[in-house]
Protein 1
Amino acid sequence: MSEDVTPVVQKLVDGLQLSEADWARLIGSSDLIALGMAADAVRRRRHDDRVTFVQVLEVPVDGEQLEGPIPKQTGEVRVTGCPASHATAVAAVRAVVAHAGAVPVTGFAFADLDAVSGHDRNRLGTLLGDLRAAGLAQLGEVSAEGLRDPDGALAVLRSSGVTAARVTLGTATGDVALSLIRQVASWEGVGQVCRCLAPLPRVGPSPPSTGYADLRQVALARLLVDNIESIQVDWSRYGPKLAQVALTFGADDVDAVPVAGGENQGWRRSPGEEIRRNITGAGFTPVPRDGRFEALDVDPGSERRAGH
């Protein structure tokens, strides 16, 4: 391992607080292999060799509602898009929950719900509570980009009893993303209401990022953010190859694996089987989960929950 980052990594292993110089040393390192090895060690200490993944069925909030049975491999039904109003959001969740049955329903971005509520935290808290009562299992995301009052955002989530699946960095890359990662690392109690940090852009950045930059950002997220349990990569957005390599650079959860692949592929070439092969090929144990981050039975054709 590079001598530049070894002392800092040892601090992380020992659970010690990093100094300004330590942060600068990690962020300034160009030794991708050293950063990746360090991040892998940290993620294995937290999660051993387990990698969770979820197969997602998306439903637009302003589109047609679900029809027909939910595919048995579905771990999460996700309502996408920005609702036009409080009532629209609640009605959409209620309808999807009624159709999804036991499959958890998630959806919406914190910023969109805040805007719908007129940036009034009391109204936002009421909306979150109503969504929870309608059956929303988790909020989709809290974006650190543009979030002016993180403490207030986390407080309204706690008071409403709603948790978020992930903290995202919006469209940020490079130094801007690293600045946001550092901010997230300072948010007190964020891990109590947000399960994952997704350090890569959820939409295409401009200019496009490189594989080197993406993997470095994943590794630094795992090394620098110790107040959130998991580091997540988006399968649909970044594809199986980068997602697989990201697992060796600190990621431990794979989001948005499609429920179904192309026609006439057969189950052996289905997305569920492909993600299992990729996780195993990276040296980890695949663990399918649902939208509440509860483990599902390892049998890809079963809806039984592990331990039940």
Note: Residues 42 and 223 are 7 Å apart (CA to CA).
Protein 2
Amino acid sequence: MEHYLDNAATTRVCPEAAQAALTAMTECYGNPSSTHTLGREAKKLVDSARKQIAGALGCQSGELVFTSCGSESDNWALLSGAQAMRRRGGHIISSLAEHDAVRRSLDELEARGFQVTRLKPGPSGAVEPEAVEAALREDTVLVSLMLVNNETGAVTDIPAVSKLLRRAGSGALLHTDAVQAFAKLPFTVKSLGADMVSLSGHKIHAPKGIGALYVRGGLRLRPLILGGGQEEGRRAGTEAVPQIAAFGAACAAAMADLEGNIRRMSALRQSAVDQLSAALPELRVLGGGAPHILSLSLPGWRSEVLMNFLEAREVYVSKSSACKKGGRSHVLEAMGLDARTIDGAIRVSLSRYTAQADIDALCQGLIEAARTLRHN
């Protein structure tokens, strides 16, 4: 029996999203920019999905722009956001624990002459608002911090960061990568106080290839992709109607019982911690905070060995972010963890489909792995 526990990398497509995509591909297959009946039907699907996601975010539909993925949303927010503020200054604040989509964008901005302060995360893996306040300068024009870390599940207090920016009278834009937080934690753009919020569909049971960027009303970002006038002239290219419709359907399904999903995932995460801590005293839980991500380590053993041991039992976890493709975790390094701990780390990530049987299989597999490795 398969036990999929790598939902931070991607999720299986839920039935609601699959059906929405199928309908868009086989019935409402027109170009949403066409003015004939099939085009108008496709546009209705796009508009409906935008409304569903905007409702979950607590924003206006016109403030949500569809992209191809979360990485594109991050790239666009940072590159165009910094450029829009260039006349006010050239300093950017971010962290050492960001997703590569943000890290590479920061590298590009540095090449363009911006100065970037990369903050070190605290012991939990989150970035403390006080660190942002200490780094803030008069010429700071952009702050970009992940809401939920994709490797540790650490939750950074974005509302507190927003409040300190206002308190300091800073005009800096605030961007947050909420890819791992959306439909996993309760928040709205108003509660966050962010100017830009990046989302991705395949983390919430929609297909791969669809994301979105919330852009606060009144904020004008230069498009990254030029061409036609789609997305109100903000992103060119024919809209991916099947993915967009599926994203909306997946969002509606996730938000229908968000609090219940959070309770169930939190309980399952705690069950894993309790079982493993009782059987494996050497186990270390690395940071955390979100209900669906558990980063843990068995120091002294290689994570690849543990993963292979689990995979042989059809339990699927990961080493760190899937985007790292096997590289050492920069997030755990930024937290100051020792090499033995980092090299023995694995990430377990849940979804609303995760069951107690999946957690039990994980725990049994890791306990068996530890016993086997001790005797070898």
Note: The longest strand covers residues 91-95.
Protein 3
Amino acid sequence: MAEYIPPTLDWVREQVELYEGSGGTEGTTLRDTGLPCIIVTHMGNKSGGIRKIPLMRVAVDNSYVLVGSYGGREKNPVWVYNLRANPEVEIRDKTEVYKMRVREVMDDPERQRLWEAGAQAFPTYDEYQAKTSRKIPVFIAEPV
């Protein structure tokens, strides 16, 4: 059994602990924004450890859109590389937990449709894309 490696950023670790520790009844929104988030449990591509990251809740049909914005920084968040290497994930949406498989969506029009769903849920994604020269990765997590 792989070992859980907590997030290094304090606020991220605290959000995961509150969300998971409450069984999904607390910590379900991104800090002071009031916007809903999910917890994505995945495997580290280098460590082999279990990783957990809160991401914005962008639900499309029975799937979730995962946007690797990293606040518009010039590099991808580490979890992007983890998902590319290990597409099997669990997603906690409040009290429900789903086994899912992710795939990166590279091509329009699907990518555009998913990006728009993301920007509707979290309008700041458009600002983040404007801040960076990289094409922000977009994944879709689908039921297995």
Note: Helices lie at 10-21, 78-85, 110-121, 124-131.
Protein 4
Amino acid sequence: MPRAQAAVALSTLTLLIAPDAAAAEPSAYPVTLMGGLSVQGAAVGGMSLGGVGTGRVIIHGKKLSLDFAGGEGVANQELRHVGAVFVGARKPFGPDLYGRFGFYHQHETPWEDFVSSPVGTIAAVDDHIFHRSGAQLAVGWLRPWDVAMTDDPWRRVMSGVELSVAALPDDSGPKVIVGFEVSAGFGVGERRR
């Protein structure tokens, strides 16, 4: 097993069996909607630097949350459009810290092909798209904007930062992609008491 895959597997095991922190609680709202911008770089299997804008839906459970994300961006290794999809789980490790792990899929398109067919590329249905799949592991900090009144709508707003590592084992592009994301979002639904 390559080192990157072994590291992701070990981190996943730690994430899933680690004891809950005493302060760890699910979100005060059942769903969180997030948007973020990330810088991504790769140096294993090819050099690359780029950026991705991401939208995320988090459905909170008592110990684990479901995490769904999609993003669009650009990378400079043979200039190309990059689309990404993530489906996985998120676990809190305190009031603001979390880890997440799951399936990561990326589609990459040469820039000229993206310009000639942007709708088909973003929809991931054109023939010129290279599809790659693997796993992504991330740790982050997500902080609610607390205010004095608990029913104030601004209490729903939150912001955070995240560091992620994606392992994509095939040879059509970089095998390990590291990302740093800054995000903001808000809680949705009836507040839990």
Note: Residues 12-24 have pLDDT under 50 and may be disordered.
